[in-house]
């Protein structure tokens, strides 16, 4: 999945929507077009699309971004990433003062400036294209952080780290100009 972030901070799948954010209104009207989800929401007269009015003020609070992924059978799902289990989250307040949440899935998670990264930060010019790897294997039950030989390095809880750093919940990660808080999701 190739995620992209528009200037308004919405993340979306660019392999589905291209360069045009599906959540931003067009310049012509005060509405946005949303394709209906698999459960039929929003209810539509025309089954291919529905226009939903948006408010005139630019509140950051409220609302959220929904990314619809298409699985191999052609069905859409919300919030899944290729059948990988959600095992943690990263939270940042740098780009959005209300906070942004980035999901960490089982296996490899690459964080960097490149749009092809699992978690891209394209606006952070101090971040390398592939800056940090976060790895979780269920068999180990350990979250590993590994700097990917980045130009500016990776700092966790104020200390420079390189390879094989064992992440703990509430660790503060600084990569480039971005500060992230790591939260592990307990596995049952």
Write the layout of secondary structure elements.
Layout: E1 3-5, E2 11-13, H1 14-17, E3 31-34, E4 50-53, E5 68-70, E6 76-78, E7 86-92, E8 100-105, E9 107-112, E10 119-120, E11 132-137, E12 142-147, E13 154-156, E14 159-161, E15 165-167, E16 172-175, E17 178-184
What does this molecule look like?
The chain is mainly β. It has one helix and 17 strands. The protein has one helix at residues 14-17, and strands at 3-5, 11-13, 31-34, 50-53, 68-70, 76-78, 86-92, 100-105, 107-112, 119-120, 132-137, 142-147, 154-156, 159-161, 165-167, 172-175, 178-184. Strand 5 and strand 6 form a beta hairpin. The radius of gyration is 18 Å and the shape is globular. Mean pLDDT is 75; it is low at 27-34 and 49-80.
Mean pLDDT: 75
Strand content: 35-45%
- Strand count, sense and closure of the main sheet? 6 strands, antiparallel
Shape: globular
Approximately how much helix is present in the residues? Answer: under 10%
Unreliable parts: 27-34, 49-80
Distance between the termini: 27 Å
- Name the structural class: mainly beta
Work out the radius of gyration: 18 Å
Query: How many H/I helices?
Result: 1
Strand elements, count? 17
Strand and helix order: EEHEEEEEEEEEEEEEEE
So what's the oligomer here? single chain
Spatial strand order of the main sheet: 8-7-17-16-13-14
